[in-house]
Amino acid sequence: MSKIDQPKGHMTLPVEVGQEEVVLDLYKKWQADALRDSDGTSMPDSLAEQDSDIYSVMCLVRADQKYAYDNPQYLHRKYLMSFPVTAMCETVSISPLDGYSKDKYELDDDSDPKQWWEVRNRTTNQVINVEHWDVCAETNTVQVYQAVPYHEYTVTFLARQVWDSVSMYNALTNDWDGPRIRSLDPYHPECRSHLLNHFQTWLDEHPNTTVVRFTTFAFLFVIDTGEKNQDIYRDWTGYGETVSPRALDDFEKRFGYRLTPEDFVDAGYYNGTYKVPSQRYKDWMTFVQEFVVSFAAELVSMAHKAGKRTAMFQGDHWIGTEPFLESYQQIGLDINIGAVEDGVALRRLTDSGGDQVREARFYPYFFPDVFREGNDPVVESMSNWTKIRRAMLQKPLDRIGYGGYLSLANKFPHFIDHVTEVSQQFGDYLQHTQRTESQKVAGKVAVLSAWGKARSWLQNQARDQRFYVPPRPDVMELVGNNLLECLSGLPFEVEFISFDDIVENGIDDDIKIIINSGDANSAWSGGECWDNPDVLVAIRQFVAQGGGLLGVSDPSALQKNGRYFQLGDVFGLEKETSLTMGRVAMPVSVTGEHYLSQCLTGKEDFGNLSYVYPQADDLNVIVAQGQHLALTAKEYGEGRSVYLGNLPFTTENARLLQNILIWLGANDGQSQSWLSSNPEVDVAFYPDTSMATAVNFSSEPQKVTVIDHKGHEVSLSLESYEWRWLSAE
Known about the structure:
By secondary structure, the chain is of the alpha/beta class. The protein contains 18 helices and 35 strands. The longest helix has 27 residues, at 279-305.
């Protein structure tokens, strides 16, 4: 029997050469059943031969550096827009790479600039005829002739990426030395063939590997890097790094029209996920998805033929795979692995379709940015774990794991003990739930955005984020409008729908509540999608016939037809944008009689001022910040609507959202079993196992009283952060 043989575990443990004894010790303490290598580490031979699942990282596009350096024509390329230059005379000289990292990018010399680049007068938004500009190869500049003085000009150019973004990050953040890694673009048939052969050789040389852990299939998410090697733009689900002339030619054959450089740089917005996507950008995404799914399926098939299971790390390189789309299931993966730091990230992993095993890779990663002298990694881990536990109660999770340097983590005994407890709690969760789903409040909740299902459980960044400095800039901490984190731990069935879904298919009968949440003009609120009478009519009819509508921040916002909120009639309010200053606002009178008024604790946080005022006599103002409406409720036909100015994540706000959804779903007139009223305690019931649970979010002892499914009162007292299970038979 192997020296690490033990009852079946549930954790994937990172390994490191020289730390074999530590691995053997933690394998038992942390209830591990799998070992993995991580970036910058390798699997010791003695551990690779153990009776354990062996996860081996496969980043195929970075795997053969000799080929990458010998064949620069196959490196990843992208369109970048030069920073605007103002013409002071009739000739303008533009250095396209000014402001961008010279370590990371080179001008692409494999494509004809006159065919693939574009010079544009940004003042008039006119494309400059190719006869009026030239490229000087010696100076890497573009000379623009017959320019109009005091107009701005840009060059949109193809850049070749000569330093992989992940390699660059590790070198600059974690002080990794060694060669600068380059990534290959498998869209080129010759490159694809070479990579497939390389992968087959790798499979043959890794007989002990039981799970191939793909950290990439083809393309990285967008990270644009500035002159000082600093990030200047990020889009975790952006498709900007998928471009090549060959792909553009094939796209034209597939869709019947040709994309332009402007379709990618988008006047400097780069089709950011926060923007309403154009049809041309969505077509490009579809084109890339078709290729990536085909390529990934071939790799997975090869691994399966070699007797190995496959996993995808849904982090750096999910571009083209899109786990929430049906095409993802064509890849044939066995395990989905997601980087999870909060409830939203957990639901992004657990809620996608298919029968893959779901494995959460927890933060903090065992890297020196966190595991350094004077820092306590338990603080970040506990902050994450408390949010993750809430969401785990709603959708089943199968496995957990960590990554990075075990030698760093082992310097913090307190952290080792903390993870031991986390793993024990997770083991209890698996035992008592048997991976079944908890009871939900009746009525499905649909989150409406321009993206719909494709961007399910993707954090809704609001403008507040720009003015907030997190403790670690590389870790996203959202403020202001953060409804999804509140929602992630609530007992409601949730799906994500788009405006196109409503236009094409109407609103499904099983949807009881629609949520529209986000800043005006963003993909989350909907922007120009609200310029469609069919959408407005469908939602009005949905509410009037008994549905519920929740709007947060700028719901249905589009300045048109005398309104800012296109569904202002449903909400009974309007937002001041300086166009209705002459309109006398109705007085704000706060009611204390409404159902939602009785749910307030006084500790709720409604974020920044809303600049929203009442426009209906029958509007119930629940909370106002001065004259700014923060929480309102209204009847509309047989249905109901609620407006929230903002909803940062707090436990008080999450419980408020629970009560709002209960009211909107017309469930306020009946008792709800296994529903917590204490904001610091989440309660869930699992009908298939007849087990109930209560988890304390806070560092203070808490009490909670709930009604069980038999109508009996159950009272519990919980210690700091305690997670309690009880039989409900």
